[in-house]
Structure formats: C-alpha cells, structure tokens
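Request: How about a record?
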Amino acid sequence: MEPNPKLDPITETALRSLHDIAVPPPVSWMPQTWGWAALAAILLVALLASAFLALRRYRRNAYRREALRLLDAVASDIRTPLTRKRGLQGLAEVLKRTALAVWPRERVASLAGPHWNEFLDGSAEVGEGHALERLFDDFEYRDEGSLAALSPSVGDDLLLGARRWIEKHHVPT
C-alpha cells in the first residue's frame, strides 16, 4: 500500500485552488451606540460620588468612634460599685468632649446643670435625651457610698443613653 496515493490531475488542481474559510473579525466589547457609553460614564460618576460621600461621612464621624472607645473604657468603672463615682465623672467628661469636638467652644464649654441637660436633649433624637438627665441632676452630687448602693441597671441605663446620644445626636451644618 502506498503511503500517499496518486491523485488525478483535476483533483489536484481543485485542491490547490481551495482557500481557508474566511473567519469574521471578533466582536468588539465597546458599545456600538453612544447611549451605553454615556450610561457607563454616569454610573462611574455616581459610584465615585457615593464613595467620596461615604469617605467624608466616615471622616466626619471619627469623633464619634473615639467617644465610643472612651465610653467603653468608662463603662467598667460605672459597673463596679467602688469606682462608680469616678466612672460617672468620666461619663460626663466623655459627653462634654464629644460635644466640644463638634459644636463651637463658646456654645458648649460654659454649659452646666439644667442648661447642659437642655443642650443634650435638644441635640438628641426625639425622646433620647431624657436618659442622661439623672446623671447631671442627681448622680454627680452624691457621695461614693450612695452611688455604690445603686443597682447596676441604673449604670447600664446611663451607658445606653450616652451611647445613643453619641451615635445619634444631630449636628447642625
């Protein structure tokens, strides 16, 4: 058997005249109309704007994150009866420092007693500011013995009220 059989001349001529199949060019990934490009540009701008606004909000709320860290440090003192007075003083300091980080010093630094309560109540969400009134009306002026006798739930209520105020107080722009 021959490895390559001899073809007749007409078949050889026909085979030599054949060409490869013409393959169409690949389909472009670019949109063919300007509307899709405009939509992509609008979506890109919206994505960049939302990222910018989220970063700005994150930076503006840095004082809140710091205040919550300080509040967590004070919480252990409030929950321990022997150090409750120091913890309540620390809580008042955290709230004042938080307010000073946002509002002008002239407006906040001189506030005390009922005026400070009104400020906290006015800057909190509706119904949230009353939880801290007991701290500034009564607890700051008690001795350590009477504060140690308080139930732990009172300290937890104060911490919860302070946490809510720090997280949700309204800052006028």
Q: What stands out?
A: The CA atoms of residues 78 and 84 lie 4 Å apart. Residues 34-60 form the longest helix (27 residues). Residues 62-168 form one domain.
